[in-house]
Amino acid sequence: MSRNIIAILRGVKPDEVEAHVEALIAAGVTVIEVPLNSPEPFDSIERLIARFGGQAKIGAGTVLDVAAVERLSKMGAAIVVSPNADADVIAATRAAGMESWPGVFTPTECFSALKAGATGLKFFPATLIGPAGLAAIKAVMPKGTPLYAVGGAGADNFAEWLKAGATGFGIGTSIYKPGQSVEMTAAQAARIVAAYDAAVTG
């Protein structure tokens, strides 16, 4: 089963990243984001692409400039996630054949991001928008636009977000916190996957 979940491994270190991602993939989470404000993020991403590139989509988060996009493209990254909607970053990402997931908050940002070529929209911070806000914005979005809730969506409220029109989720501290054990990552991922599957099928 393919799940619309992006695991956000903010703060992960290169010497531990492979073990955590192995646990995530085993649990059923196959889209992995290493934010660029993590320790030596490009090293982590390179390791993940080399080992798991055939099993998962590997990419970066907190991507703020075209130079980072170009570096990720050369490494073979598959996905670029940003906290903002920078048209140049989006266009460069798409031109390089990678998925672009810019952060948006308003209808104006949504339409600007889509015009620049965004693959889908990352509503961030989702906790401030809320399901009701997402539902209102979805009503004016082009049909079929992927809408991901990030920051405030999790195992306890997946169903509420899905009902409002979310098509996927970015999960950060609910699945990984710096310094936690691989066993904890596995347990958190299992909880997220079970809740997601129940919300989708229920």
From TrEMBL:
<protein>
    <submittedName>
        <fullName>2-dehydro-3-deoxyphosphogalactonate aldolase</fullName>
        <ecNumber>4.1.2.21</ecNumber>
    </submittedName>
</protein>
<comment type="pathway">
    <text>Carbohydrate acid metabolism.</text>
</comment>
<dbReference type="InterPro" id="IPR000887">
    <property type="entry name" value="Aldlse_KDPG_KHG"/>
</dbReference>
<dbReference type="InterPro" id="IPR031338">
    <property type="entry name" value="KDPG/KHG_AS_2"/>
</dbReference>
<dbReference type="GO" id="GO:0008674">
    <property type="term" value="F:2-dehydro-3-deoxy-6-phosphogalactonate aldolase activity"/>
</dbReference>
<keyword id="KW-0119">Carbohydrate metabolism</keyword>
<keyword id="KW-0456">Lyase</keyword>
<dbReference type="Pfam" id="PF01081">
    <property type="entry name" value="Aldolase"/>
</dbReference>
<comment type="subunit">
    <text>Homotrimer.</text>
</comment>
<dbReference type="InterPro" id="IPR013785">
    <property type="entry name" value="Aldolase_TIM"/>
</dbReference>
<comment type="similarity">
    <text>Belongs to the KHG/KDPG aldolase family.</text>
</comment>
